[in-house]
Specification:
338 residues; Cobalt-precorrin-4 Transmethylase, domain 1; Rossmann fold; 3 domains; flat; disordered N terminus
Length: 338
């Protein structure tokens, strides 16, 4: 029997019908926007272009973005990831600072060692650094709303002398905070926080300290805001929401929290399709799917394919915002990028 006859044969059609009946229907609500933001895109491009222009190895201080798939892919290309500069030998190889930003002591040490370094700090994080310096120059005590230990917070605090920045993580922290002068305060925020949580903390700060100065424009970045808005749109309609991202990704973890608060009975953070906990999903008819700002689209597609093996899948894209932001690359890579 030819392949053409096999496809058209009644037995083949019956087999296809049986398979279709065996798979329950599933609607996947695909959040848009999702995945890479302009800052992540820029950071990854910096590593790729540095490898292309200067060859391997290229050293990267800290994960360039918080995603193991991205890091491992770049490692295969010749990137070497380290936590501190003292792990890097004295060579002429480029050194790249991650998208999260670094304390001022890091580029100072790199310059002292005559290292050729490229700064992949997201421009929106750099904006927060500039705000911190501006407030400090005015003699204001600075409150940073953020999560202790996160690389972005470490980098922002490290822009100023020790003790110049106080960290606030919750509304309860606002109640116990004791300023040097209640009339000489300013606040800045980490860029990847929960929009709703941050609004609540800011409201508490303003209630307690009416004269507190704030950023000219919200510090939480457009990508974080947009992805949380998209999750709010799909979560109430979803039995389960999956956020594709790494466990050390702040913006990804916030998306899980937003989904839970927006009415979804189950929301989870998964790094890849192999992590799907099939036995714990229960009966689902609608799946919400999104990705943190450092998660590549290939991981989203792999999860859709995995569900296609268990369900008859239809995908509905739910768009709540359109993004067209592009950030410039460092001057040293301009020629190569062109």
């Amino acid at each position: 029997m030819t392949m053409e006859n096999l496809v058209d044969s009644p037995s083949a059609i019956a087999s296809d019908d049986t398979e279709a009946r065996a798979k329950p229907p599933l609607t996947i609500l695909l959040a848009a926007p999702r995945g890479f933001c302009a800052g992540v895109d820029r950071a990854i491009q910096i590593v790729e272009l540095a490898l292309e222009k200067y060859g391997a190895p290229v050293y990267v201080r800290h994960e360039i973005v918080h995603n193991r798939y991205v890091v491992e892919t770049l490692e295969e290309m010749g990137a070497v990831f380290v936590e501190e500069l003292d792990e890097i030998p004295d060579t002429g190889a480029p050194v790249i600072f991650s998208a999260h930003g670094v304390p001022k002591a890091v580029p100072s040490e790199a310059a002292r060692r005559n290292m050729f370094f490229l700064d992949a700090t997201c421009p929106l994080v750099s904006k927060v650094h500039i705000e911190a310096e501006r407030h400090h120059a005015k003699g204001l005590e600075i409150i940073l709303i953020g999560h202790a230990g996160h690389p972005e917070v470490v980098g922002t605090v490290g822009q100023l002398r020790s003790g110049a920045v106080a960290l606030i993580e919750t509304v309860d922290d606002v109640a116990t905070f004791q300023p040097k002068d209640a009339n000489r305060l300013a606040y800045i925020t980490q860029t990847t926080l929960s929009v709703d949580d941050t609004l609540e903390i800011v409201a508490s700060l303003k209630q307690r300290f009416p004269n507190i100065a704030g950023p000219r424009k919200d510090d939480i970045c457009y990508a974080t805001t947009n992805r949380q808005g998209a999750v709010k749109a799909i979560a109430p309609r979803s039995d389960v929401v999956i956020v594709v991202g790494s466990p050390n990704s702040s913006n990804s973890k916030r998306l899980v929290e937003v989904a839970q608060r927006s009415g979804c009975r189950m929301a989870m953070l998964l790094q890849k399709a192999a992590d799907i906990p099939w036995k714990h999903l229960g009966v689902i008819r609608t799946l919400g799917l999104t990705a943190g700002a450092s998660a590549p689209e290939i991981l989203v597609n792999q999860i859709i394919e995995a569900f296609g093996e268990h369900y008859t899948v239809s995908v509905e894209t739910v768009t709540t915002a359109t993004e067209d932001v592009v950030f410039k690359l460092p001057r040293a890579l301009h020629e190569n990028a062109a």
